[in-house]
Design a protein that fits this description.
Helices cover 34% and strands 20% of the residues. With 405 residues, it is an alpha/beta fold. The strands form 2 sheets. Strands 1, 2, 3, 4, 5, 6, 7, 8 and 9 form a 9-stranded mixed beta sheet that branches. Strands 14-13-10-11-12-15 form a 6-stranded mixed beta sheet. Helix 3 crosses helix 4, helix 8 crosses helix 9 and helix 8 packs across helix 12. The radius of gyration is 27 Å and the shape is elongated. The chain starts with a strand and ends in a 19-residue tail after the last strand. The structure holds adenosine-5'-triphosphate and magnesium ion. The site of adenosine-5'-triphosphate (ATP) has 20 residues, from helix 5 and strand 11.
Length: 405
């Protein structure tokens, strides 16, 4: 019955002058995501886009649409001629496919003003036809449970019921670039997804400390990135693996226990800022969440982020853990995130980290020559693009992988 999908853009209507680029961006993304479905035909309109299915199952297309940011909603559409009898028959067929009792309404738009009936007349004719020939519907124009939309255009009529909610947000690439601090945990991939949903391109930064931490932790990051790359174009997401072991060992040795995490995170932020400058990133993005752990009290957040001069975005700052988990399940990162391997934030660290670090006390870090170590980490960072289909298996002995840049 359904032979098209009507795709409506999300917030784009708000963005008058950039609209063309935005629409283009969504169009290209849908095109890329559906490139293996050779029978479908996309056509881009000013306020919406239509996809002719030509025999392709609409479920197959919808699966791809759910990976494209910027889509407000979409509807499967059935088309017919502009002949009133054809419209009535199709309407009846569509309604008969719905088995439950429903309060029902017909709504008509007529872009061809020369059409012999007004919108209201079409609505009345179709509603009467449907009601006479079915038993499970009653009319309720104020609070309908089901609305049959009819659009009569010059060449064809379009009939559809519901609007299915799209991913929303802004198309990827419309909000600059940020550096996502990506651990193997639950939060940071969700933070990445949330910020990508606002149109920001991300490059990931992962601090790996093999062999202090198992290689499986870094593999988790690869696998999480593959999941996040479902929402990007072909190349996927660039990840910077920072060889953190030496600096990590040094600070485990030289910093007193309570401040180890705070100082470690100050180092991570310094390195990330340098990588941002080097790669054109305008901010850092983290999975921090207020009060979740000792390093995420506002005092800690302050003592950590005061070492950098670029904005730090924390999309999850006010969310409840359950809601974060719900998103991580939705984007399919959850099962990877809960694989039980330690990363540098958990390995060899004290049970009682300070919850209210004082910035003046953080100067402990000056007990060792961290500036050189920070620069060394930046210079020896290994970068790799990870796409949805990338096959990257890190070697089990250590992190001596040479990626193709
Ligand atoms: P997550 O679930 O993202 O690991 P978390 O609740 O475990 O977060 P922390 O371990 O305190 O919290 O880390 C807070 C944030 O710091 C993470 O969300 C991430 O953005 C960043 N981060 C932590 N460890 C690393 C790492 N090894 N590499 C890169 N970023 C990290
Ligand atoms: Mg963590």
């Amino acid at each position: 019955m359904y032979d098209q999908i009507l795709v409506r853009y999300g917030e784009l209507t708000l963005k008058g002058k950039n609209k063309k680029d935005f629409v283009n961006n969504i169009y290209q993304m849908i095109k890329f995501k559906t490139s293996d479905l050779s029978d479908i035909v996309l056509s881009k309109g000013h306020n919406r886009l239509s996809i002719e299915l030509n025999g392709t199952k609409f479920e197959e297309v919808i699966e791809r649409l759910d990976k494209v940011f910027g889509i407000g909603s979409y509807s499967p559409v059935a088309t017919t001629t502009t002949d009133l009898d054809d419209i009535k028959n199709l309407a009846l067929k569509l309604v008969k496919a719905i088995k439950e009792n429903k309060k029902f309404k017909v709504e008509t738009k007529r872009s061809d003003k020369r059409y012999p009936l007004t919108s209201m007349e079409i609505t009345q004719e179709v509603a009467a036809h449907v009601l006479i020939n079915t038993e499970h519907l009653s009319v309720d124009v104020k609070k309908p449970e089901l609305t049959l939309n009819i659009e009569v255009r010059e060449d064809k009529s379009y009939l559809y019921f519901n609007r299915i909610k799209g991913l929303g947000g802004l198309p990827l690439g419309s909000s600059g670039k940020g550096m996502l601090l990506l651990s193997g945990g639950i939060d940071s991939p969700v933070a990445g997804f949330q910020i990508m949903r606002r149109g920001m391109t991300v490059e990931g930064i992962h601090f790996e400390s093999t062999p202090l931490t198992p290689i499986e932790s870094a593999q988790k990051v690869v696998d999480l990135t593959k999941k996040m790359a479902q929402y990007t174009g072909k190349k996927g997401i660039k990840i910077h693996f920072v060889p953190f072991k030496n600096l990590h060992l040094e600070l485990l040795d030289k910093v007193r226990d309570a401040y180890k995490i705070t100082i470690m995170r100050r180092m991570m932020f310094r390195i990330s800022e340098k990588l941002a400058v080097k790669n054109g990133g305008l901010c850092l993005v983290t999975g921090e969440n207020l009060g979740q752990v000792a390093s995420q009290t506002i005092e800690s957040i302050n003592a950590i982020s005061c070492v950098v001069n670029i904005p730090v975005l924390r999309p999850l700052i006010s969310m409840d853990k359950n809601d974060i988990i719900t998103i991580s399940k939705k984007i399919d990162t959850y099962l990877t995130s809960i694989r039980p391997f330690e990363d540098c934030c958990t390995v060899y660290l004290p049970n009682k980290p300070v919850t209210m670090p004082r910035i003046s006390k953080c100067e402990f870090e000056e007990n060792f020559e961290f500036a050189t170590a920070v620069d060394w980490c930046v210079e020896n960072t290994q970068t790799v693009w990870i796409g949805e289909e990338s096959e990257i298996d890190l070697p089990s002995e250590g992190f001596e992988v040479k990626f193709n840049k």
